Amino acid sequence: MESRSKSAVKSYEIYSAVDPSVVNSMLDWFRDNDRNVYKTAVSTLAQSRKLRAVFIQKKPLPEQYAWIRKTLQLKTSETIGEHLMQAWLMAGNQDMLAAFCDAMDIEHDGKGSVSGDLPDEFEATKLDAAVDSLVGKFDPQVVSVYLRFFNLQKPGGWPTLEAKLESDERLKLG
């Protein structure tokens, strides 16, 4: 089992801490760009709560979103929550992912999906500059979520990235 760093929080903890508008943006993106993923997520979450998906789907959209956000905050929703967030980051935030990889000299496919080896270490000044650039161009909450998920890509995470996530007020969730 891989070791988890202090800042390497689980997806349900991120859903509990992040501003609801970030989760709403994710859900909007799926409804607009990949409705099947949205429907599957609702169905899976409903089943996990021993409900029929139609019960959730009949609710007005703001109530659906509130129910989904609340359900994604449960430990039992860890897997679906992680998959949803990763899919949204990889498909709906490619510009941000590519900008981070470029700033950190990480090989990627042009869309932010890493194609080479991940670095063993991050240079603090380069990471500081990358974060400054990202929070200047993108929602700092989304940047924070992305960096937390990125930090899970290496067992134990990167100490420099962990320190940045813990010390930079712009990267605080919520």
Question: Can you describe what's shown?
Answer:
With about 170 residues, the chain is mainly α. It has two domains: about 10-90; about 95-170, no CATH class. The chain contains ten helices and no strands. The chain has helices spanning about 10-15, 20-35, 35-50, 55, 60-70, 80-90, 95-105, 125-135, 140-150, 160-165. The longest helix has 15 residues, at about 80-90. The chain is elongated and about 50 Å long. The model is unreliable at about 1-5 (pLDDT under 50). This is Transposase. It comes from Haloferula sargassicola.
SSE diagram, text form:
Elements: H1 11-17, H2 20-33, H3 35-48, H4 53-57, H5 61-72, H6 78-92, H7 94-103, H8 124-137, H9 140-150, H10 159-167
Keywords:
single chain; Transposase; mainly alpha; 174 residues; 10 helices; elongated; 2 domains
Q: H/E element string?
A: HHHHHHHHHH
- Which structural class should the secondary elements be placed in? mainly alpha
Strand content: under 5%
Question: Would you report the number of β strands?
Answer: 0
- Give the helix tally: 10
Number of folding domains? 2
C-alpha geometry: elongated
Describe the structure concisely.
The protein is mainly α and 174 residues long.
